[in-house]
Amino acid sequence: MSGLIALLGLSVVATIAAGVWLELRPRRLPSPAWLKGGLLANLLLFGLALAGTLLLGVQEVLAAAPEAGGAVEISIGTGLALIGVGLPTALAAIGAGIALGPVGSAALAVIAEKPEMFGRTLIYMGLAEGIAIYGLVMSILLLGKV
Questions:
Q1: How far apart (Å, rounded) are the C-alpha atoms in residues 127 and 145?
Q2: Which of 130, 140, 144 is nearest to 93 (CA)?
């Protein structure tokens, strides 16, 4: 298990090191074939180590002795239902973040030229942020069904 975690760490450090090296020496790039192959090998190593860590981590959790006490037991179905309840909020927050980027930059550009447009730009920002609120409301409604 610790070997797989070491592989994950090595893969992340190698990716960061490659990015720093390419940033510091942009003109001395290696051939594109070598770069693509190295990146592909690094991604493959990371994916295999992550999958192995997940599989072995699940085995360790399932094999662990239950603790004494008043622990509430949650079935797999309940756990999956709770994950499903959280997904609308997560996906809506990602969508709101994607929407707020261009809307916010355009709003700042408009306010720089015409300060009297501030109120309208706030409305557009609120509409984009409303996406996340809808996801949160859906999660709350779904949580009532679980």
A1: 28
A2: 130
Exposed, middle or buried, 100 (CB in 10 Å: 0-12/13-18/19+)? middle
**What does each C-alpha distance from 2 to 42, 53, 64 come to in angstroms?**
19, 9, 17
Other C-beta atoms closer than 10 Å to the C-beta of 61 total 8
Alpha helices in 64-145 (DSSP H): 76-113, 118-145
* pTM metric for this prediction: 0.48
- Domain ranges in the chain are 2-63, 76-145
Q: Mind listing the pLDDT tens digit for each residue in 75-132?
A: 888 888 888 898 989 999 999 999 899 999 999 999 999 999 999 998 988 988 888 8
Neighbours of 92 (CB within 10 A): 20
Q: What is the CATH number of domain 76-145?
A: 1.20.20.10
CB 128 within 8 A of CB 100: yes
Residue 100 in contact with residue 93, Cβ under 8 Å?
A: no
